[in-house]
Amino acid sequence: MRLRLLLLALGSFAVGTDSMVMAGILGLIARDLDISVPAAGQMVTVFALSYAVLAPVLATAAARWPRRRLLLTALTVFTVANALSALAPNYPVLLATRVLAAAGAALYGPTANAVATTLVPPERRGRALATVLGGMTVATALGVPLGTYIGRTDWRLTMWLVVALGAAAFLGISLLLRELPAPDAAPGLRARLAPLRNRSVVAAALTTLVFFLAVNVVYIYLAIAVRPATGGDAGRLSLVMLVSGVSSIAGNWLGGRAVDRLGVRTVLLSGGGLAAAAALALPWASATMAGTLVYAAVAPVAGWAVAVALPHRLVSLDPPNAPLLISLNSSALYLGVATAGGVGSLALTVLGNRWFPFVSVALDLVALTMVVVTMRRRPAGRTDGVPAAGPVPATVPVQPAGHARDVGVRR
After folding, report:
1. Number of Cβ atoms within 10 Å of the Cβ of 110
2. N or C: which end of the chain has fewer CB within 10 A?
3. pLDDT given for residue 183 in this prediction
4. pLDDT tens, 185-211?
5. How far apart are CA 63 and CA 399, in angstroms?
6. How far apart are CA 232 and CA 405, in angstroms?
7. How does pLDDT run across 317-326, given as a tens digit for each residue?
8. Which one, of 73, 66, 65, 64, lies nearest residue 107 by Cα?
9. Distance CA 232, CA 76 (A)
């Protein structure tokens, strides 16, 4: 079981590296293609928006596909798209390949997370999701620095690294992940979209959007926020990013266990509160390298713990529709990332380089308020958002994505 989750995490590592490594090679892309750095940065926005729009659409369109075929198709599209990115002769072609890469990622991410929830008992779903999401956190700690280093002279080498990672994930899943049963008849589009009429589902998705908007307002412009400590030195900034990446892994690991032991609501409130406190302290912490490193160690732990809790919350609201709900969570996440660039830029213009993290604090508080208002404290005999006798049957066999009983497992 552990091997299966690690194979799914390998695909997440490839996707995470691709989606985040662009920030380290934008300057090289701009010079090579004779465009401005802001124009090159639009690749990040295009990828994020494409992912956000395509994730629920593809989850519905491919509902009747066996999960193994879904995973392999997604990785094929993703890997081929990155190979085309490496070969792109100009900016328009490169943008088009980023949309195609986002399509593969949008099909893979929600499917991998949904598969993870079916491989373990309900009480271990938090850790299962944390393992798959761990691929993203390891990408932050290792994939992004490695990709940036490899592409320091030629950004196309970075894209070939992503191709190699995608191919490795494809081979691992094709050879070792063979026991996922074929789906029964899948529900129609109307039935699959029914959870969107649930106000709790909509509120949970909006919470995801606001929280990731808050986190990325600072993360995207972290080099500016910590410049008083780094003085613009690349070595010091690399150290900050390394600490941040390692802390992301720790936050992911701790978040999965905290969700299983303490519940989603507790993790959302404590993690969100810690993230807000870290952003509030950043204007003063960034004055010294020691303070900056403390921030880099604390903020990602809080952020990634919440990142594990958010999809778990959505799945708990309507377990039979886990694939759709996880794709909805992914869409909200990437919309938050896509919006954060513009919001952060506006915050820098209005508040300046030192005080712009206060916008992140305000958004964190909005997300916390949404959690308090929309999640009542869990009474005895209930899981987070789902009655103990609710829609997770005690003896439902594992089914592939798209079936109405997807996340039921034999206890």
Report:
1. 28
2. N
3. 46
4. 555 556 656 667 788 888 888 999 999
5. 12
6. 53
7. 877 777 677 7
8. 73
9. 39
